[in-house]
Amino acid sequence: MTISERPSKLSLPQENPGVATVLEYLIIKFPYIDAQVWRQRMADGKVHYHDGSLVTAQSPFQAQQRIYYYREVENEPSIPFKETIIFQDQHILVAYKPHFLPVIPGGIYVNECLQDRLRRSTGIETLQAVHRLDRVTAGLVMFSKDPDTRHHYHRLFATRQIHKTYQAIAMTDASDNLVGQEWEVTNRIVRSEPRFCMRVVEGEANSHSVIRCVQQSGRAALFELHPVTGKTHQLRLHMQGLGWPILNDDYYPELQPFTADDYSAPLQLLAKKLEFTDPVTQQSRCFYYDGELSLPKDG
């Protein structure tokens, strides 16, 4: 059993969903966690309030109280790839995240994530990611070091004041001459079923990407992608919509049966560059990962 080194937290909702205790709320909030698991966590002192006082099975529900708990998984995988710190100053840290490593804890990962690895290696407990990459995507992730300036960097992403460049590899028709061509993709992306997947539907566009082919070798092609918006799985869906799903994508165009990670066949998507004006120092920033995706030799 692996137990998270740091607590997860949630705020009880303003409207009571019809429960008398915190325990009852957690049971309906997390239907896939057995009620006895919550009872045991409370008995072991692994659920508490913001002030550190323990939540018990009899603790009454009170709106907007913060609840802290420690996630547990039976067997947490260890990802055999190393992160790299690209840059840091007093406000931010930028690191390269390898394929398969989550940015923050989630699912079967409670300690094995980029954020916790960097906290351990740097000793900076205040380190917090200000944006996300999919676990299966590699590339640059920016972290805030100073809680007092963190909101400025969150706003960069929320207001689209940051320019992101990705690389992707897809299989194409060898007879197509795509190099130099550019496509602008706009459409509406919403949650699908299962909930971790997304889909394109009719309606007002909420996603926007600019995609350009920069190299071809046989059927394989290398694309440069610029997401203007930041919807979940946006680039993966936009490449699929153009007819070239990203190589080794287990979600699109068709969700594949769950299997253990194949470390020899990562999703061919790389977050390569971040460009922005630093909202605190007003310096122009351009962070670049010098690794490249390689076209398959038998493409």
From TrEMBL:
GO term, biological process aspect, one? enzyme-directed rRNA pseudouridine synthesis
Task: State which Enzyme Commission number(s) the record gives.
Answer: 5.4.99.28
Q: Which SUPFAM superfamilies match?
A: Pseudouridine synthase (SSF55120)
> What Gene3D superfamilies does this protein's entry cite?
Pseudouridine synthase
Protein name, UniProt field = Ribosomal large subunit pseudouridine synthase A
What top-level branch of life does the organism fall under?
Bacteria
Instruction: Please name the Pfam families in this protein's record.
Output: PseudoU_synth_2
* Signal peptide span: none
Taxonomic source organism: BD1-7 clade bacterium
One annotated GO molecular function is: RNA binding
Q: What are the Pseudouridine synthase RsuA/RluA-like domain coordinates in residue numbering?
A: 91-240
Q: Which residues form a coiled coil?
A: none
Report the gene name. rluA_3
- Per UniProt, which keywords does this protein have? Isomerase
